[in-house]
Amino acid sequence: MQLFYPYRHYIITFFLFAFITAISLTFRHQLEMTNIILIHLLPVIVIALRGELIATIVITTFSIALLALYIPPTLSFIVHEMIYIWSFVIFYIVGYIITTQAKRIHLNSIKEILYHTLSHDLKTPLSSIMGNATFLVETHPLDAALRYKALSQIIESSRQMNRLISSLLDSARLQNPQTPLKKEWCDMEDLISIALREFRKDVLHERIECHFSVELPLFYGDSGLLMRLFVNLIDNALKYSDEEKLIEIAISTTPTEFFITFSNECPPIPPEELENLFEKFYRAGNTADISGSGIGLSICRDITHAHHGNIHAHNTDKGISVEVTLPILKRPAILKMEEL
Amino acid sequence: MKPHQLILIVEDDEAIGRLLQLAFHQLGHKTLLAKDRQSALREVQTRSLDIVLLDLGLPDGDGKELIKTIRSKLSIPIIVVSARSDEQEIIAALDAGADDYVTKPFSTNELLARVRSTQRRFLVFQTSDPLIICNDITIDVTQFTALKHTEPLKLTPTEFNLLKYLMLHRNQVLTHGKILKEVWGIGYQSEMQYLRTYINALRKKIEPNTTTPTYIQTELGIGYRFVCNGPAQ
């Protein structure tokens, strides 16, 4: 199923084709040529809204080819009347205009997201940095412990800003279909350990507990994005968990899938809000005071989808568990292992 | 790091340039700041420099060319400063002759540690000693044996060669392509699966905890670094 995921809009369009062909063939005498042609414009519009020019051209051509069923001489691709040629040209023009407009709207929505995130989520750590820095400059004399605390907060907020900016850059990369994933063989355990390095040791304390299957195979994916996925999920698990409580990270595999779960201990989230967690700028209702980004989890969803996987959150008896499922689409070749 | 060294900082951002100068002045070093390639080249030709710190994103052209020029004239550490997500640029800079890199934003501690370790490498001569030691790991390159504490490590020939190569180039960033070429041979530069698999196997044998490796550090998108904080041989 996941194999077809990137082509789902093609599949939907072909179902639509089947539907309109059934309608047109059944009612061909009642509908007249004009209406049949107009009906065949529907799949063109549906696919054009995706904003991908190649998809539009493919579907438009297919739609025009299907009209051979109705345009005399039927079932041949010969057209005698000039008027139909005009219709075909109009098909392409309509497809082109809608595609470019749709592309523009997509780009604008990305800009809007960036704008909102920049204005809200970046200002939070920035205010902490400015506040602490001005406090340090203006307060004399300053207790050594207070000074250390303020400086630590500056460093932590800077790290938080850095994580967010990195996420935004990755997100922008994902939104652009022209930049494909940089896939390579990834060692998942290694990526988790790199993700953990993004956090300060005293923030993690001894709170992370890892459970990995002994022989984890390599996974073929974009290591930078997967690392970002793990950073965001750890960040999220830390942010929404009760202080000093354990965060568990588990990785296991089946022959077809990787399962990666991040569990923390916190009050439960109402089930209807769980799925919304991965929507852009959604934040569970009771957490207004938690600093951080509403964009973090939506990027996690984008990254898993880009790898044809899924991400879900569910309540456990202790807290919340986020489970990432990634299908194994390419298996590592079996290396001839050497003798000792 | 010896005191009173002359450090050339090639950086077009004023705030970062100032911060780096401040950090090195604190340690008693002298610095020169060049804001573009032209003035950097001038300093390289006229001063006797000890270290070069180079930002890859220069306003007037390619940092890699500058690295090659410096490399052809001087045998001093070159450390590259780069923005994140420029992995290809970093690899190209390392291939051009840079010794190490840090990515922005970096902590000054991290940068100073890189400078120290790179400099230490320039002072160490290749030893003919068959024993290579790093903390609790010892390998004997003539006997093809490896020890952890006093326990013998059971390594396959490739694992042994990989460990030997990493330990000989301790604390250096080694790109994927370079390790594959040196350990597996020419023609294997893009066989990432081999490298990942063998690093993984090696880690299981030498690291106390594979989730927080202390010896073999991954440099994401770039390569690996064998970290050895013990005294240089």
Describe the structure.
- Chain A is of the alpha+beta class.
- Chain A contains eleven helices and seven strands.
- In chain A, strands 2-4-5-7-6 form a five-stranded mixed beta sheet. A two-stranded antiparallel ribbon of chain A has the order 1-3.
- Chain A is elongated and about 90 Å long.
- About 3% of the residues of chain A have low confidence.
Query: SS-based structural class of chain A?
Result: alpha+beta
Query: Main sheet of chain A, how many strands, which sense, barrel?
Result: 5 strands, mixed
What spatial form of chain B do the alpha-carbon principal axes imply? elongated
What is the strand arrangement across the widest sheet of chain B? 2-1-3-6-7
Notable features of this structure?
A: 340 residues, alpha+beta, five-stranded mixed sheet, 11 helices, B: 233 residues, five-stranded parallel sheet, four-stranded antiparallel sheet, 14 strands, 24% strand
Summarize the structure.
With 340 residues, chain A is an alpha+beta fold. Chain A has helices at 8-26, 28-48, 53-66, 82-120, 123-138, 144-175, 188-197, 201-204, 223-239, 271-274, 295-306; strands at 183-186, 208-212, 219-222, 247-253, 257-263, 310-315, 320-327.
Give the helices and strands, then pairings:
The complex is a heterodimer of chains A (340) and B (233).
Chain A: H1 8-26, H2 28-48, H3 53-66, H4 82-120, H5 123-138, H6 144-175, E1 183-186, H7 188-197, H8 201-204, E2 208-212, E3 219-222, H9 223-239, E4 247-253, E5 257-263, H10 271-274, H11 295-306, E6 310-315, E7 320-327
Parallel strand pairs in A: 2-4
Antiparallel strand pairs in A: 1-3, 4-5, 5-7, 6-7
Helix pairs in contact in A: 1-2, 1-3, 2-3, 2-4, 3-4, 5-6, 6-9, 6-11, 7-9, 9-11
Chain B: E1 6-10, H1 14-26, E2 30-34, H2 37-46, E3 51-55, E4 57-58, E5 61-62, H3 63-73, E6 78-83, H4 87-96, E7 100-104, H5 108-123, E8 131-134, E9 137-140, E10 145-148, E11 151-152, H6 157-168, E12 173-175, H7 176-184, H8 192-206, E13 216-219, E14 223-226
Parallel strand pairs in B: 1-2, 1-3, 3-6, 6-7
Antiparallel strand pairs in B: 4-5, 8-9, 9-10, 10-11, 12-14, 13-14
Helix pairs in contact in B: 2-3, 6-7, 6-8
